[in-house]
């Protein structure tokens, strides 16, 4: 059977853990799919960037100026100013660029959003609590580590906190960058690096998202709780970036659990979406559009402003 997903030839920048997971997922055999594949030759269509955050801007600019499409890992840049520079270059060159917020492309997330915002199974969503925490023992790392060096974009917010922030946004908002919440934030710093961040997003209608991250402990499997006027939904998984199932609980009814199969890690869903967008002649994604990348980067800039985490590049 001919696949509906066109083939892309991928060039990979960086060989770290996430990049290796991404490449492994590209190589998975799945029914009715041609393989998106990585290549060691100069002939490729798109660059996947999995370098430390501080290198994203220059890596993106180099690829864009070479006429290549780009899928860049989150966080897309260190701050909104860097993100604007990259996206303006992409606009001028007419190439596809997307921040690799892969979790947004999971079928689980898309089903959850449909239940929340279209079917409104728990009524109006009032509050969302989401946490992501991973023990990293940052104190024992060398000062050159990407997890400890502010010049490389170190900190729990950009590394993992972006996930809890994303869960709050996608469960409280029906469309990307459709609303403008206010921000209250606090960070615990060690040697200038945020190792714990707590954020409250408050929307004009009163709904709130509480998003937390920490490098000092480990989140329980039930990492996200969504509270509505008619019931609740709890999302569970190994970590917030890789959800496994969610459970809808309504008063007087048996809880209903939604499970989703996930061969590999799940990076192929965003890779397939990128292939379809590029084939359609798009320069940005409807799921993760440029305006959403800029909005989230702006929120994280404000969180760091309030919390105290700084990067040397913020002064440029």
Automatic annotation (TrEMBL):
All copies of domain GFO/IDH/MocA-like oxidoreductase, residue ranges: 111-234
Keywords, in A-Z order:
Oxidoreductase
Respond yes or no to whether keyword Transport is given for this record.
Answer: no
EC number(s) per entry? 1.1.1.179
Which enzyme class, named as a word? oxidoreductase
Occurrences of domain Gfo/Idh/MocA-like oxidoreductase N-terminal (ranges):
40-99
Kindly give the InterPro entries that the UniProt entry links to this protein.
Gfo/Idh/MocA-like_OxRdtase_N (IPR000683), Gfo/Idh/MocA_domain (IPR050984), GFO_IDH_MocA-like_dom (IPR055170), NAD(P)-bd_dom_sf (IPR036291)
Q: Which reaction does it catalyse?
A: D-xylose + NADP(+) = D-xylono-1,5-lactone + NADPH + H(+)
Keyword Thylakoid listed: no
Give the molecular function GO annotations. Answer: D-xylose 1-dehydrogenase (NADP+) activity; nucleotide binding
Could you say which protein family the record assigns here?
A: Belongs to the Gfo/Idh/MocA family.
Q: What is this protein called?
A: D-xylose 1-dehydrogenase (NADP(+), D-xylono-1,5-lactone-forming)
